[in-house]
Amino acid sequence: MSAACNKKGVLGQLKENCAEIMKCMQCGVCSGSCPSGRHTSLNIRKIVRNATRTTDVLNDEQLWMCTTCYNCQERCPRNIDIVDSVLAIRAVAVREGIMLEEHRNVGKLLVKHGHAVPIDEKNKLKRTSLGLEELPETVHKYSEGLEEVKTLLKSCGFEELLETGNE
Question: How many angstroms separate the CA atoms of 98 and 58, rounded?
Answer without folding.
Answer: 7
